[in-house]
Amino acid sequence: MKRMTLAGLSIGLGLLSAGLYAHAQSAPSVTFWVRSADQGFVEPLVKAYNAKGGTQVKLTVIPQDDFVTKFATAVAGGAAPDIVAVDLVFLPAFAKSGEMTDLSALYKSLPYAKSLSPSHMRLATFENKVYGVPFSAESSVLIYNKDLFKKAGLDPNSPPKTWAQLETYAKKIRALGGDTYGYYFSGACAGCNIFTFAPLIWASGGDVLNAQGSAATLNTPQVKAALSLYKRLWDAGTIPAGSKTDSGTNFFSAFATGKIGMAGSGAFSIGTLKKDYPKLNFGVAPLPGQNGNSSSFAGGDVIGIPAGSKNVSAAQDFIKWALSPEVQVQQFAKNGSIPVRSDLASNQYSKLDPRYVTVSNLMTKGRTPYSFQYSELINDANGPWLGMIQDAVFGSGGVDAAVKKAQDRFTQILNSN
Fold it and tell me: Which one, of 277, 275, 302, 378, lies nearest residue 260 by Cα?
């Protein structure tokens, strides 16, 4: 057997390096757009995927407020990305306007399809076709300060299960005096209130829109009763004055001060409070209905393939990988996020803290309004949803008048589109 010369070895290594470089250069790639709110968890996700070799994902982070407009412009101009993750509330409008690719076949091929977050799948479906699958999940919950419960003579392991209990507990905590208050909500934040106020209505048998998103259902006893609850909490002084003008800045931080007994929040609060406020003794519970039951806003993102994608097959491979246990458990659950698959809700990480099991289970019965005009109806800071809450809770015109005004405005918007 001939011995390879040093020169031959150098040539061989050079050819090997050149071959590897050429393979890396020729590896297919897909483009992926996400909103800025998702940057923190998506960047390590993409890094992990790219480290596997093969198809590479090129991530672009779009400012939150610009996402919808920029995406629509890109699709219309033939410059859409191959993959997009979008707030699930906007997918019905994207699907209706033809901006998304039909993924019905992909969905039906998934052996765990029935375990995917039902609210995500409902908003991803238009005219019996599926245009996306869940990507990230966020459920709304009631967080409560166990130490304040104890000081007020309440059982720290028994959060309110009815509105009457919530109201009584809030008053008892406020009776501790000083700058301690029983309840908090961001009174000038439209999105915050669909997230934490609408579940009170749903848990009581009411709704804000019909199932098709074509008609307003605000003028109902359940909506009026929920607004009256907030009005009584405000009038009784159990809510701090700053709540009235809070546009969301203190949505989470108010509770973190340790001076708030209860507040609507999201599953994200568990990890954040544990990490940044380790001394805060808090519990997590479902948002209650008037006479029992509970509900949650199922939030998060849907992932899909825009119309005009040039790499559909590679995009589908990434989407399936994002739904795998490798990602849902080792990337999401491990870092304090909720899996979008109910069959993975109970895992080695959620079992370490029962609060995670609570929020994961809420996703199975979480709800989200289905609407093609979501921004105009609900998200707009000057829109009818927030206007109704502010008029009813902080105004002097009464709950009935506030509801009628919002019902009329909802109807106008729906009819104009």
Answer: 277
**Average pLDDT of the residues in 5-12:** 39
CATH number at residue 242: 3.40.190.10
3 in a structural domain = no
Q: Do residues 132 and 151 both lie within one domain?
A: no
- Rounded Cα distance between 126 and 189, Å, is 29
**Residue 14 domain-assigned (yes or no):** no
Q: How far apart are the first and last CA of the chain?
A: 81
pLDDT value, residue 127: 96
Q: How far apart are CA 98 and CA 300, in angstroms?
A: 22
Contact 367, 295 (CB under 8 A): yes
132 with 204, same domain: the answer is: no
In this structure, the number of other CB atoms found within 10 A of the CB of residue 245 comes to 13
pLDDT tens, residue by residue, 249-286 = 999 999 999 999 999 999 999 999 999 999 999 999 99
Q: Smallest Cα–Cα separation from 170: which of 230, 253, 249, 218?
A: 230
Q: Is residue 1 part of a domain?
A: no
pLDDT of residue 236: 98
Same domain, 292 and 176: yes
| Residue 368 belongs to a domain | no
pLDDT of 4 over the 80 cut:
no
115 with 79, same domain: the answer is yes
380 and 347 fall within a common domain: no
Q: What are 376-417's pLDDT values in tens digits?
A: 999 999 999 999 999 999 999 999 999 999 999 999 999 996
The domain of 317 spans: 27-138+299-362
Is 277 in the same domain as 377?
yes
What is this structure's pTM? 0.90
Long-range contacts of residues 125-128, Cβ cutoff 8 Å, at least 24 apart: 125/95, 126/92, 126/95, 126/96
Contacts of 56 (CB under 8 A, 6+ apart): 27, 28, 29, 30, 50
Q: In whole angstroms, how far apart are CA 61 and each of 51, 71, 88, 350? A: 20, 12, 17, 29
Pair of tokens at residue 191: 């999105």
Amino acid at 168: T
What does the pLDDT look like over 145-174, one tens digit per residue?
Answer: 999 999 999 999 999 999 999 999 999 999
Question: Looking at the 3D structure of the chain, how many domains does it have?
Answer: 2
